[in-house]
């Protein structure tokens, strides 16, 4: 990961959320 980029791109954020959802079951 590039620490120089303080602002995460929307794509990175989407992947992060996807990973979080995959590793952690979301209460639906």
From TrEMBL:
Domain of life: Bacteria
Chain intervals for the UniProt region annotation (Disordered): 1-28
Name of the protein in question: DUF2771 domain-containing protein
Species assigned in the record: Corynebacterium urealyticum
């Amino acid at each position: 990961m590039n620490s120089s980029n303080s602002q995460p791109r929307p794509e990175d954020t989407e992947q992060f959320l996807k990973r979080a959802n995959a590793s952690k079951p979301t209460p639906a």
